[in-house]
Automatic annotation (TrEMBL):
GO terms for cellular component: cytosol. Keywords: Cytoplasm, Decarboxylase, Lyase, Porphyrin biosynthesis. Homodimer. It comes from Roseivirga seohaensis. Residues 21-30, 141-157 form the Uroporphyrinogen decarboxylase (URO-D) domain. The record marks 76 as: Transition state stabilizer. Its EC number is 4.1.1.37. Belongs to the uroporphyrinogen decarboxylase family. Catalyzes the decarboxylation of four acetate groups of uroporphyrinogen-III to yield coproporphyrinogen-III. The lineage of its organism: Bacteria, Pseudomonadati, Bacteroidota, Cytophagia, Cytophagales. Pfam families: URO-D (PF01208). HAMAP family: URO_D (MF_00218). One of its GO terms (molecular function) is uroporphyrinogen decarboxylase activity. This is Uroporphyrinogen decarboxylase.
């Protein structure tokens, strides 16, 4: 199906665009009353993720309501460990919880490399429904968690400020850590390819906990596996977003991906110098900037666009939009990107 709006794909490939494309991480979620209405009709988050029709509905809501240039499939990075045999629960106001974790070599016998068709068929079905309902209006983004971030949850069992148990394994059982990381990587590659086959036009790898590792360990225990994923995905553009990995930007320039996502603490000019001219940059407005007045949001957005310039940029926040942010402020951000970036190209 031919896309009516392919801005994000052209920007990722480094082609000229009439304006800067814009979308937001976590755009399909708690900021929208329409999302909360769907969510409240169910038992919780996981039931919504596993209902293809409703997952498609909330995926499309931001396109209709916020006017973003791409939809991102409503799912969760933790579907991978569950598909590998390590189920999770989503505890309200606390986050994910894994009743069982990986502690020793023996625990690897209880998990497997995920089969995307049987273990993750509900995500694949949600993508197919979403593509049909979008009818080519905008591209659909597929995604997965980076192996290091998934590893953190599989070993720690829950969210953490330090993930000390996960990091401990890198020192005390590095061979076990690498074996588990490879299983996650193999699962992720087949999962992303299944998303692409179902209709995803571009995919993003989220390394949410990149910033808790020192640079040398990040190269060994994260970047090595992200590199495998990027090299394996040749069908569509790939974006890598590694929150807090400011030390790895030069290394990211060597990844076989099209786009590098920046968090809001990564200086734009410095990042461009480190990454070089041959990658598209994505980001990176501080999500908290959206708490400001309309005038302040507009000014912050224009400042960001000026810093990135007109080429090889996909506008986004430097992390996911926070749940208590007013959707009207998000619309100011989106509309400012559209109008101001178009003006810059015509000036």
């Amino acid at each position: 199906m031919e896309l009516k709006n392919d801005l994000i794909l052209r920007a990722a490939r480094g082609e000229k665009t009439e304006r800067t494309p814009v979308w937001l991480m976590r755009q399909a979620g708690r900021i929208l009353p329409e999302y909360r209405a769907v969510r409240n009709s169910l038992s919780g988050f996981i039931e919504l993720v596993k209902n293809p029709d409703l997952a498609a509905e909330v995926t499309i809501q931001p396109v209709d309501i916020l006017g973003v240039d791409a939809a991102i499939i409503f799912s969760d990075i933790l579907v991978i460990p569950e598909a590998m045999g390590l189920p999770y629960e989503m505890i309200e106001k606390k986050g994910p919880w894994f009743p069982n974790t990986i502690k020793s070599e023996a625990d690897l016998k209880n998990i497997r490399i995920a089969d995307s068709s049987s273990d993750l068929g509900y995500v694949i079905d949600a993508i197919k429904v979403t593509k049909r309902e979008l009818a080519g209006r905008v591209p659909l983004i597929g995604f997965a968690g980076a192996p290091w971030t998934i590893f953190c949850y599989m070993v720690e069992g829950h969210g953490s400020k330090t993930f000390s148990n996960a990091r401990k394994m890198l020192y005390t059982q590095p061979a076990l850590a690498e074996k588990l990381m490879q299983m996650i990587t193999d699962s992720t590659i087949t999962y992303l390819k299944a998303q692409i086959e179902a209709g995803a036009n571009i995919v993003q790898v989220f390394d949410s906990w990149a910033g808790i590792l020192p640079a040398d360990q990040y190269e060994q225990f994260s970047m090595k596996y992200i590199r495998q994923i990027c090299s394996a995905i040749t069908e569509v553009p790939v974006t890598v977003f590694a929150k807090g990995a400011y030390f790895a930007r030069k290394s990211m320039a060597t990844l076989d991906c099209e786009t590098i996502g920046l968090d809001w603490n990564m200086d734009i000019k410095e990042s461009r110098e480190l990454v070089g001219p041959n990658k598209t940059l994505q980001g990176n407005l501080d999500p908290c900037a959206l708490y400001g007045s309309n005038t302040e949001v507009e000014a912050a957005t224009k400042k960001m666009l000026d810093a990135f310039g007109p080429d090889r940029h996909i506008a986004n926040l430097g992390h996911g939009v926070y749940p208590d942010i007013d959707p009207e402020k998000v619309k100011v951000f989106v509309n400012t990107v559209k109008e101001y970036s178009a003006t810059l190209r015509n000036s």
